[in-house]
Automatic annotation (TrEMBL):
Name this protein carries in UniProt: DUF7312 domain-containing protein
Lineage: Archaea, Methanobacteriati, Methanobacteriota, Stenosarchaea group, Halobacteria
Biased composition (Basic and acidic residues): 1-25
Disordered: region residues: 1-45
Top-level division of the source organism's lineage: Archaea
Record-annotated DUF7312 domain positions: 18-67
Length: 70
């Protein structure tokens, strides 16, 4: 077990850093396997239909809140 943990350590000869771990705890799963890099989510353009539903939802929420207070 110590062979594997020592092999995963980066030495000063590799990167100029001394005694740094190659992977952080967030980079590996519970079995110690490094997962693939997640693909970034690219924003798309706003369509008129989606914007209309957001506005209708906001107006509907305001109508419900105002009717509850009256």
């Amino acid at each position: 077990m110590s062979d594997r943990s020592d092999a995963d350590r980066v030495t000063a000869d590799d990167d100029g850093r001394d005694d740094e771990w190659r992977f952080g705890l967030d980079d590996v799963d519970e079995n110690g396997v490094v997962g693939p890099e997640p693909t970034p989510i690219e924003p798309e353009s706003v369509s008129t239909e989606n914007a209309l539903f957001v506005v209708l939802g906001a107006l509907g929420t305001l109508a419900v809140l105002l009717s509850a207070t009256l």
